[in-house]
Amino acid sequence: MLSKIHTAGLMGIDGFMVEVQTDISNGMPSIEIIGLAGMAIKESKERTRSSVKNSGFSIPQKRITINMAPAATHKEGSHYDLPITVSVLCASGQLSIPDPDHTLFIGEMALDGSISPVTGVLPMVISAFTNGFTKFFVPVENADEAAIIEGAEIYPVKNLRALADHLAGLNKIQAHKTDISELYKANPEFMIDLADVKGQAQAKRALEIAASGSHNILLCGPAGTGKSMIAQRLCTILPDMTFDEMLEVTKIHSIAGILPEKSPLITVRPFRNPHNNASAAALSGGGKVPKPGELSLAHNGVLFLDELPEFNRDALEVLRQPLEDGRVTISRVNATLTYPCNIMLVCAMNPCKCGNYGSRNKICTCTQREIERYRSRISGPLMDRIDIQVDVPSVEYNELSSAKKGESSAIVRERVNKARKIQTERYKDIPGINSNSQLTAGMLQKYCRLDKSADSLLRSAFNALGLSARAHSKILKVARTIADLAGSENITDAHIAEAIQYRNMDRQRHIQ
Ligand SMILES: Nc1ncnc2c1ncn2[C@@H]1O[C@H](COP(=O)(O)OP(=O)(O)O)[C@@H](O)[C@H]1O
Ligand SMILES: [Mg+2]
Ligand SMILES: [Zn+2]
User: Fold this and answer.
1) If 217 and its partner were Cys, which of 287, 290, 332, 388 is the partner (CB 3.0–4.6 Å)?
2) How far is residue 461's CA from residue 440's CA, in Å, rounded to a whole number?
3) ω into 70 cis (within 30 of 0)
């Protein structure tokens, strides 16, 4: 007898449908799995044998051939255990599925027949649901994330026996429900607030602009001036995510296996803060069973690189293309994968190795050569990806000791949300463009038009500071965001003048 059971595989952040076909014929007792199955799937045989036996079923003493279709696509992962076992039990007449063509099975099995959680359930369920599947048998621990998809019937399965009882109508498993409105909290609560930062008005303003237009930003200043503190507070002022953005982020975190328990939908933009000893692979992702790296885990949110010059050169190098493309490509023996990484890059650095260059009260012990060498650790091409560069100087004692509270994150976030809404509306007909930072050279002409006086201001700055063409387009984009924050349709002199200020490093390079 031949049985066909459906499950799914993963290609990047999307699922694809897989059919597990089992044929039982006379011959030497054996189990063979074919159809480009990876190591974990080959081992599935042994888990199937034991779990079947320990759940009160038996493996027929016959020749069992299991084919994973489509045979041309490489498959990897332990979540095929359950569909393989179900397929064998159906082929041997020990189990029957009422509606097999609309039913999907996902789950890893232990030797005793219990079912363990796996990664990537949400993207698999989404793809299957769009392919017409309606019933999903998934591990108990993954039921919350799967139930995010409205209309999908999610059955959490504890073990093989419970599944068999449900299918036989003996002991029905209740379909699992996740209350999305409960999960969706528009105003998340944070333990930190921008109001904690004293002084540093320019850096805070730059952070607000960066958040509004999703611009990459570099904070540069002596040690202890609050750079890390300011950057960490960025997540408190980021614009709200749309539901589609939440789903994308949640899919990636599901594949990485880092979805927080009890909050299956990620509603707050991610803020990833890898240590400076992170390898290139940790940032870009990869591995035998491929996993997204920091770049993709930060998708729709922030990648914060603190102490930027301390990062490996290779690791920084790997950021360049993904920052430009909004996706990261991983080459493997069997296939090439892409994960999205539409991120905001935030970097902080000291101006020199000892950290005191430019400090008001501490003395820099570095030589001019050492300072230059330190700064040159960050390649020009990476610097070119940064829209906003801002100085974070030493704070005056008066400012630090002042009891006066600055603006709270909630107030700033309101302005950021407003500015982002203007952009969403403006770019609603352009696929892939949500914010000013994503504008291409061609679009600048249309959306960042300058009046005569703004144009002549930019022209004279361009010549006086010796700016590059890239710096020119960055000034335009940042000025567009500053105008949006001001609710102004036109980009004026004042907007251009402020945007020019955020090209600090260009200016310093020119002067040196
Ligand atoms: N502007 C500031 N307002 C309030 N506290 C500050 C400020 N700058 C520094 N601090 C204090 O100094 C500590 C070190 O700041 P940090 O952000 O790590 O500096 P940096 O990253 O620039 O070296 C902070 O945890 C905070 O307690
Ligand atoms: Mg720091
Ligand atoms: Zn120094």
Assistant:
1) 388
2) 22
3) yes
Tokens for 136, please give them.
């999903």
CA distance 243 to 148: 11
Report whether residue 394 contacts ligand 1, using a CB cutoff of 6 Å: no
Ligand 1 pocket member 204 (CB < 6 A)? no
State whether 368 and 267 are in the same domain. yes
- Residues in contact with 508: Cβ distance below 8 Å, sequence separation at least 6, in sequence order: none
Q: Domain boundary at 418, 433, 448, which?
A: 433
Question: Where do the DSSP E strands lie in 145-301?
Answer: 153-157, 217-220, 271-272, 285-286, 291-292
Ligand 1 atom nearest 221 alpha carbon: 22
> Are 78 and 44 in contact, with CB atoms under 8 Å apart?
yes
User: Per the structure block, which two tokens stand in for 253?
Assistant: 């975190």
How would you write the pLDDT of the chain (512 residues) with one tens digit per residue?
799 999 999 988 999 999 999 999 999 999 999 998 888 888 999 999 999 999 999 999 999 999 999 998 989 889 999 999 999 999 999 999 999 999 999 999 999 999 999 999 999 999 999 999 999 999 999 999 999 999 999 999 999 999 999 999 999 999 998 877 777 765 667 899 999 999 999 999 999 999 999 999 999 999 999 999 999 999 999 999 988 999 999 999 999 999 987 778 999 999 999 999 999 999 999 877 788 999 999 999 999 999 999 999 999 999 999 998 999 998 877 678 899 999 999 999 999 999 999 898 899 999 999 999 998 888 888 888 899 999 999 887 777 777 777 899 999 999 999 999 999 999 999 998 999 999 998 999 899 999 889 999 999 988 888 888 888 999 999 999 999 999 999 999 999 999 999 987 665 554 33
Q: Is the CB of 199 under 6 A from ligand 1?
A: yes
CA of 394 to the centre of ligand 2 (A): 13
Q: Examine the domain organization and report whether 464 and 395 are in the same domain.
A: no
Cα–Cα dist 461/202, whole Å: 20
Cβ of 224 less than 6 Å from ligand 1: yes
234 CA from centroid of ligand 1 (Å): 15
Ligand 3 mean position, distance from CA 351 (Å)? 7
The residue whose CB lies within 8 Å of the most ligand 1 atoms, and thus the one to mutate among 205, 225, 273, is 225
Task: Identify whether residues 54 and 90 lie together within a single domain.
Answer: yes
Determine the distance separating the centroid of ligand 2 and the alpha carbon of 307, expressed in angstroms. Answer: 7
Instruction: Please work out whether the CB of residue 226 comes within 6 Å of at least one atom of ligand 1.
Output: yes
Q: How far is the CA of 197 from the centre of ligand 1 (A)?
A: 8
Domain residues for the domain of 480 are 439-512
**Pocket of ligand 1, candidates 229, 305, 352: which has the most ligand atoms within 8 Å of its Cβ, to mutate?**
229
Q: Say if CB 98 and CB 167 are below 8 A apart.
A: yes
